[in-house]
Design the sequence.
C-alpha cells in the first residue's frame, strides 16, 4: 500500500484550516504524510541543489538529495551543470558515495558500468559479447532531472517536466528582495567552504517555517539576542517594535525584515567599500531597506532558507554581518539533516570574509549560540507531539485571524506586507503553500 493509498491528497490538504488558522500536529510527526510529501512536493517543485561555485571545473561534483532521492550535481566537459539520480541504471547501486570530488567519469563499483560526465553510458566492464546484444546501453544513461536552472549562483532542479521555468517561481518580486542578500554587488556572492551538516530531531518543515518570520520567539528563546546582534540591545528592540514587516512574496516565499525605524541608513556590520558597491548595484528603495536592516530571515518553499544578521562578541568590537544559506533536508517525519553554507561578497577583503565566517560559525551553525537555542526548542516540539493525544491535536497560528486584513500599503517593496513581525502571516502562508501542493492545486 502506497503513502497515497494510506492518506489521500484531499486528506492531507484538510489538515491545514486556512479559515481558522490551525494546523494538524500530524504535519510534524506522521510518517505516511512524510512519504506523501516526498511524492507530492519534492518530485514536483523546484528544489535547491547547490551553488555553482561548488563545482567550478569540469569533472567537479557534489552529492545532494531531492527529498529522499540522492542526486549528483556535476559540471561536464562543456562547462554545463547536470543533475542526475545517484543510482546505477543497472542494479540501482549508489554510484557516488563521497560528498564531493573530481572525476573524469562515473563508474559503478558493483559491476563496473561507467558513465560520461553528461550522464550518458560510457561502457561496461565485461566485453560486448557477454551481453549478446540484449542490453540497450544507449538508453541506460544516468537518470537526469527534467529541468535545471540557476539564480544568483544557486542551482535548482526538478523532476517535473510540466513545471514552469524557474523564473515563474523566483519572480521579479522575489528577486527584488533576494538581491538584498544575493545580488547587492556587481560580482555577487561566493561560498565560504563546504557546507556544515548535522542531524536534528525535528520535522523538516519546522526550521523553514521559523525562518519565514517567527518574530515572537526571538526575544524569548534567544537570550543572547541583545548583546550579540547589532549596536545595542536598545537598537535591536527598537527595530523589533518598529518597522519590521513580514513579507509574503509568492509561491511560498516569505521573509521577515527587521528594520531600524526612521530614514537613517547606518549599514550596521558592513565595511564602507562594500556599502559603496551596494549603492552602485541596488535601487534607492532597496538601499534604504538594506541600510536599515538588522536581521533578514527568508524561506523559499519547500526547504531553502537564508539568514543575515550583524553579530558581535565583545562590546569593544564592531558588529560583522554574516549570511547563511540553509537546506532542511528531510530524513523522516521527525528527523532532519541540516546543510549550512556561509556566503560573502566576492569583492570583500580577505579580512572581512574571515570575520564574516567567524561571526556565522559562532552564531548560526551546529555549535552556534542561536542554533543551540533553536535545536532545543524544535526537538522539544517533536517530543511534545510524539504520543497519540499529541498527534490528534492542532497547532495554533490563529494570530493570523486578527492580522490577515492589515497590510502595509505604502511599503516600498513588492508582495503582501504585514505591518510587524508578530502577525504569523508568513509562517502560515508557508503552510498554505504546503496545502496547495499536497492537495493538488499545483
Sequence:
Amino acid at each position: 500500500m502506497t503513502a497515497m493509498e494510506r492518506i489521500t491528497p484531499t486528506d492531507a490538504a484538510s489538515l491545514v484550516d486556512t479559515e481558522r488558522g490551525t494546523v494538524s500536529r500530524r504535519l510534524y510527526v506522521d510518517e505516511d504524510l512524510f512519504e506523501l510529501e516526498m511524492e507530492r512536493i519534492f518530485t514536483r517543485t523546484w528544489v535547491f541543489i547547490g551553488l555553482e561555485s561548488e563545482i567550478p571545473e569540469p569533472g567537479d561534483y557534489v552529492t545532494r538529495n531531492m527529498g529522499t532521492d540522492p542526486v549528483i550535481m556535476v559540471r561536464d566537459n562543456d562547462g554545463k551543470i547536470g543533475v542526475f539520480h545517484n543510482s546505477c541504471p543497472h542494479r540501482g547501486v549508489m554510484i557516488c558515495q563521497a560528498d564531493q570530488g573530481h572525476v573524469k567519469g562515473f563508474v559503478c563499483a558493483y559491476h563496473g558500468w561507467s558513465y560520461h560526465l553528461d550522464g550518458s553510458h560510457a561502457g561496461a566492464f565485461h566485453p560486448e559479447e557477454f551481453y549478446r546484444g540484449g542490453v540497450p546501453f544507449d538508453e541506460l544513461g544516468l537518470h537526469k532531472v527534467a529541468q535545471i536552472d540557476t539564480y544568483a549562483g544557486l542551482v535548482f532542479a526538478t523532476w517535473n517536466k510540466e513545471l514552469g521555468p524557474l523564473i515563474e517561481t523566483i519572480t521579479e518580486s522575489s528577486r527584488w528582495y533576494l538581491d538584498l542578500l544575493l545580488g547587492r554587488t556587481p560580482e555577487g556572492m561566493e561560498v565560504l567552504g563546504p557546507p556544515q551538516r548535522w542531524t536534528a530531531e525535528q520535522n523538516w518543515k519546522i526550521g523553514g517555517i521559523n525562518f519565514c518570520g517567527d518574530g515572537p520567539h526571538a526575544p524569548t528563546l534567544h537570550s543572547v539576542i541583545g548583546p550579540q546582534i547589532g549596536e545595542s540591545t536598545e537598537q535591536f528592540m527598537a527595530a523589533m517594535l518598529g518597522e519590521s514587516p513580514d513579507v509574503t512574496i509568492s509561491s511560498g516565499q516569505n521573509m521577515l525584515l527587521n528594520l531600524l525605524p526612521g530614514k537613517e541608513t547606518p549599514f550596521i556590520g558592513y565595511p564602507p567599500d562594500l556599502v559603496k558597491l551596494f549603492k552602485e548595484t541596488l535601487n534607492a528603495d532597496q538601499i534604504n531597506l538594506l541600510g536599515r536592516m538588522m536581521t533578514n530571515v527568508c524561506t523559499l518553499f519547500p526547504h531553502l532558507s537564508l539568514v543575515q544578521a550583524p553579530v558581535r562578541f565583545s562590546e569593544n568590537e564592531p558588529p560583522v554581518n554574516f549570511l547563511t544559506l540553509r537546506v532542511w533536508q528531510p530524513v523522516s517525519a521527525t528527523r532532519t539533516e541540516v546543510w549550512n553554507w556561509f556566503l560573502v561578497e566576492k569583492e570583500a577583503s580577505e579580512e572581512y570574509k574571515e570575520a564574516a565566517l567567524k561571526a556565522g560559525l559562532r552564531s548560526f551553525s551546529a555549535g552556534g549560540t542561536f542554533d543551540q537555542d533553536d535545536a532545543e526548542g524544535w526537538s522539544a516540539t517533536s517530543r511534545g507531539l510524539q504520543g497519540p493525544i499529541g498527534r490528534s491535536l492542532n497547532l495554533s497560528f490563529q494570530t493570523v485571524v486578527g492580522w490577515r486584513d492589515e497590510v502595509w500599503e505604502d511599503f516600498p517593496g513588492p508582495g503582501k506586507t504585514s505591518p510587524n513581525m508578530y502577525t504569523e502571516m508568513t509562517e502560515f502562508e508557508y503552510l498554505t503553500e504546503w496545502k496547495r501542493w499536497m492537495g493538488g492545486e499545483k
